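Notes from hallway chat w/ T.B., transcribed later so I don't forget. T.B. wanted the structure written out for a chain they're using in a teaching module, and asked if we could keep both sequence and structure tokens in one place. Agreed to drop them here.
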Amino acid sequence: MASARSLYERHLLPHLVHVVCGSTRAAEQRRLVVPRATGEVLEIGFGSGHNLAFYRPEAVTRLIGLEPSEAMWDLAQPAIARAAVTVETVVASAEEIPLADASVDSVVSTYTLCTVPEASRALAEVKRVLRPGGRLLFCEHGEAPDATVRRWQQRLDPLWTRAAGGCHLGRPIAALVAAAGFALDELETAYLSALRPAAFNYRGVARPAEGTKAPVSAATASRRSRR
């Protein structure tokens, strides 16, 4: 059983994620979010490169793709090869971003926070690497506003999470972003399809809130302690 599950997660699941995340509805949301990235950009949960078609090469001076799965990087190669922007590939998780504090202007997260094991920790890392005035640009699915739909999300989540590589149906995306010390400049929400437990979408722009201090990375803390 363990071997069969390992084969599923290594070989079948990446292709399934590639297909599902490449849906027309997801692409419509990406088209509204990704072109707003400017300067030095970090994309967390790069996946198989579905966002690459929407970056504006005249606005992006550097694009860093962060993705922990080697299988997803393999699937991303065709998109990287035809992209109008160069991608710096980093094999790492969003909970431990291997970048310096205040080093990027924009962070892009599209259908990533549902799957990151520790979403709050990932958002703290995003805040740490953003420069003053930097922006988090996101579109994510998550917790629905309707009680009936939320109950279905809770019922389905254990099975969904196992089948979908750790994806959770009901994470409260806006609340997580705000709790991490971001101010939501823009937020739009809507159901994107009739499959409501998996279809409530959050799309927004957030900045580190004034008066809050970004956490110091472990690497930075270690350097400071040696001074």
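Follow-up for T.B.: The longest helix spans residues 2-21. Might be a good example for the class.
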